Amino acid sequence: MFTGLIEVVGEIKSIKPIGGDKRLLINCPNGFLDDCKLGDSIAVSGVCLTAVSFNDNEFSADVSNETLSLTSLAQLALGSKVNLEKALLASSRLGGHIVSGHVDGLGVLDSIEEDGRSLKLSFSMPNDLAHYIAKKGSITIDGISLTVNSVENSHFSVNIVPHTADKTTLSEIKIGQKVNLEIDVIARYLERMLTKVGTEDSTANAKNATMLGLLEANGFH
User: Fold this and answer.
1) Residue 98 — pLDDT band, cuts 50, 70, 90?
2) Which of 97, 123, 147, 196 has the greatest number of CB atoms lying within 10 Å of its CB?
3) What pTM was computed for the model?
4) Can you list the domains of the chain with their CATH numbers?
């Protein structure tokens, strides 16, 4: 699990094909890997990867064809910048929101507008993700925990404060660029609960049609 609060920005040093997949070598700022060990999970621009080797300032991670086909990691080239976050510790502050590092789909940056000292970024998203996105809800973009400012059909916008732009890859994002999107985990479970309602008999459906009935049916009192 992660929080969506980016710790550092890393740089791709090599991309090596291995057995049909790829192995990334990522350079990190000094100190980032001090408490890491083999097998640790590190979110790379929102994609949870496993460190298979590392030294003081670099780690390697394997990326499957499945991951490459579903995420923006397929766009990476030598010198590309990536957002990095180590897995959440039980003793850490949950300053963002719960992020799994499992990408749900790719968004595309449609526009950038200045909004005071912030930037308003507007994205398009796959139609099948649109119903998960809510105004003032949370979304993860390339591993960054952000608040949705507006949503309409298959488009949504977020505001980026100067600190976030300075400390993440969003400072270099370009119109038309693809980004990794992860929806709020609460939306996943809520949909599952509502789907369950549809599988019950008509009497149960009538009771569960209310929010109170839905909560009671799923063990909340």
Assistant:
1) confident
2) 123
3) 0.85
4) 8-86 (2.40.30.20), 105-185 (2.40.30.20), 187-217 (no CATH)
